[in-house]
Amino acid sequence: MKVLITGSAGFIGFHLSKALLKMGFEVVGIDSMNNYYDTKLKFDRIEILYGYSNYSFFNINIVDRDELFELFDSTKFDLVINLAAQAGVRFSIEKPHKYVNSNLIGFVNILEACRNYKVDKLLFASSSSVYGNNVEVPFSENQNTDKPESLYAATKKSNELMAYSYSQLYGIKSIGLRFFTVYGPMGRPDMAYFSFTNKIYQGEEIQVFNEGNLSRDFTYIDDVIDGIINLIDKLDHIDDNYKVYNLGNNAPVRLIDFINTLEKSIGKKANLKMYPMQPGDVLMTCADIEESRKDFNYSPETNIEVGLGRFVDWYTSYYQKSTK
User: Fold this and answer.
1) 63, 147, 150, 231: which sits with the fewest CB atoms below 10 Å from its CB?
2) Residues belonging to the active site
3) How far apart are CA 312 and CA 134, in angstroms?
4) What is the pLDDT of residues 39-71, one digit of tens each?
C-alpha cells in the first residue's frame, strides 16, 4: 500500500511514518518544515525516516494547491493521512490567519486532491479541543461539539464538517481522529510536558494555570500509533463512509499531579508560579474510547509514570542532559 502522510516531519507524523515503514508500507511524506518550533527536531526526524528505502519526502505546504496537485498527479496513493496543521491553542489567539491558511485552506486542498485524483480513503487529524468545556465526561463522539473555546478548536471542528460533506458528495471514506494530548519521545517542544522539562532543567519558572486544577487525558505516542495501525487494518470493515474516533487514554491526570510525576522522573523540583485560567483553555479532557475499542481494538496501555519516564530518558539523551 502506498500512503501519503502530510506533516510527516511532525511528532505524530514521524512516529506513524516510521511504524508503517517498518511494516513494509511505501510512505510518501510531505511537510512545510515551518519554524513554529525548532526545525532541528523536524530535520532530525526526517533524517531517521530517510534510513528506510521505502520512504520519500517532499517539502510541500498543503496550502500550495499547485504543488500538492502535482504530487497527486505523479503518484497514485491508496490512502492519505492528513496530519499537517497549525497546532497550538494559545497561538491561535495570537496568529489566527495561520490557522485559517493551514487548517482550512490547506485541508480543502487535501480534500480536493483526493476528489480529483480518485483517492477514496482519508484519515485526518482532529482534536479533543472540539469538545470545548463540555461538562459531560468522558467525552464521547456523539456529544455536541458546536461550542469551541479557541479558533484552533473551531478549525478542527470545521475539518470534520468539511470531510463529512466530501464523504457524502464524492464517496471518500473519511475518518477523523480526535487526539487527546499526545506526548512522548521526539515530541513537540511547544507542548506543556516538553516546555516544563526544559524549564525544570534550566531552573526557570513554570506558569501553572488555574492553580494546577486542570486535567488532561495524556496519551502516549506508541498507544496512538498502535491505534492508527489497527484502524488502517480494519478500514475496509468499517461500514460508515464518515466517522470520528477518540484516541485518548481514558485516564485524565491533574496538571499538578502531572508536574509532580515529571519532577520525580527528572529528579529535580520545579519552580512553580500559580496563575488564573487562560483564555481558550478547558478544565478537563477525558476520552470515551469504547467506539475505538469496538471497531479496531484500540487499547492504550501506557500510564503517565511510564510514559513520562520514557520521554525524560529520550530528552536527556537528545539534549545531553545529566540525569538526577
Assistant:
1) 147
2) 152
3) 32
4) 999 999 999 999 999 999 999 999 999 999 999
